Amino acid sequence: MSASAVVDRLDTLSKYARSLLLAPHEQVEPPIRAELFGAQRFEQHGHSLARAQVVEDGPSRADATPFFPRVDTNLESLRQAFDYIALISRSGRYVTPAAEWLLDNFHLVEAQLQQIREGVPRSYYARLPKLAGAPLAGLPRVYGIAWAYVAHTDSVLNKDLFTAFLNAYQDVDELTLGELWALPTTLRVVLLENLRRVAENIAASKVAREVAHAVWDHAGELDSHDLDVLYRALQSRGMQDSYLTQLWQRLPVEHGDDAPALFKWTEQHCPNGPALIADAQTAQAAANLTVGNIITTLRMIGQVEWADLIEPVSRSLRVLRELPSFGRESELTRQLITHSMEQVARGSRRPEREVAQAVVRLAMAAAARAPATADDDARWSMADCTAGYYLFGEGRSAL
Rounded to an integer, what distance in angstroms lies between the CA atom of residue 319 and that of residue 167? Predict the structure, then answer.
């Protein structure tokens, strides 16, 4: 008997559960979660990651991996998981704190799509250095950096850790201004990918439990072969542990020899029920923490003054800060300076820091030519002693 024939007999199953069990479906991927790092370990990882990441030579291919991998499909998957979790919630079944986070904050999740699309124009993104090696080949280098950061913080945005990581990475290989300014949007993309994975795992666990309840409700109609067929379908989607846990929890302590086949089948497949429950509780606690972290970080990304975080770690802007006049510039002027520096570097095919060094040399030389009577404030207030004069003003031809 096929899995669909067995599932058809479980007439109480939801449409989402039937689809997850029977429709062509990729196995749910594990969350983006790894060993938690402190500042020192992040510095070590920044060095090793910079050495490991190989960047493509030359312009990106026309068929390169598209911008914002899986963002649209991630949101669609999240909507389906949200609808199913909401359905389970309305049915009166227990909803985990992770599921409640998702239900209460789904409006914030949906808003990410617009913020991602507005965060970095596609033409801007296309110029970012791309990775040459698997598994992220064709994606921007900063995508790999954001992925590593999210994994080793469990999706928490900590400015000190983030700064330590970026500084250490650039001890080995400098990031462009474009890459640094793409980081807020890239973090959103990776966090959305992670939330999809956690939400799908939550929904899959609830489907497995829904199937287990349906199996108990139809226990008298299912023989061992039916149960084996259904179990293989659950195994193929990695849902067997949640299924077995729920079956074991409903197994009566005592039953007669004439009990349905489900009783003996459950005993054979659940030799250690308490261990199953302990594992389920551990996974649930981890999911609760990760979802809460993701939602909190998505909020923070919109509140952080990214200029205050990014400008200090930019190697080219560190060079420009050698000019006393640079610290006096307005935010708008600094934006013009950074944008123009990117243009000059791209047009001259020189590193941004080399452009910044040339600007500083020109401005310092101009300051040295100032009248001997001029004090420092007057000298550095002269137009040709500023970065803007050479990057987008009359001194650009000299640069």
Answer: 15
